[in-house]
Amino acid sequence: MKVDSLLSLSLYKANVGLWLDTVRLLEQSRHRWFELGVRLAGGVIDESRDLAGQVATARDWPSLAAAPQSAVWRQAQHRLDGVRAIAETALENQAALSTGMQRALAGWQHKSVTALSQKRSEMPLATVMREVLQAPDEGKSSGD
After folding, report:
1. Residue 40: pLDDT above 90?
2. Which domain holds residue 106?
3. How far apart are alpha carbons 134 and 142 in whole angstroms?
4. What percent of the chain clears pLDDT 90, i.e. is strictly above it?
5. What spatial distance separates the first Cα and last Cα of the chain, rounded to whole Å?
6. Are 55 and 67 in contact (CB under 8 A)?
7. What is the pTM of this model?
8. Structural domain contains residue 109
9. Which of 3, 19, 64, 67 sits at 20 to 30 Å (Cα–Cα) from 142?
């Protein structure tokens, strides 16, 4: 059987295209996680700044003693907001990755089928598949 180098090149390009699409999707996911990390870190920095400001502006011992108590409640709320943001980001990333991969695979399938269909007259896919599927059966019958 003659192998057409243009067919091989077309299939190779389809595979590289799928790989590039997958890398792009993973980069987008990484970027969304990075943005979340920056937002969460910014919240922690703001909390620390607020607590330091309360301590610095305290005019008496009772207000100084109240600063850590109020900070605990704000931190607890911030942590709950962080958990919610992580869950939302995880769901959004999973949905975006799933949808993107479906599109990438559909594009890869289309490119592969197009490449194979263009060469059907030179190398009919049905004939090749029939030869591949019949080869093991012929080996068994001759060995028995």
Report:
1. no
2. 8-116
3. 13
4. 38
5. 28
6. yes
7. 0.66
8. yes
9. 3
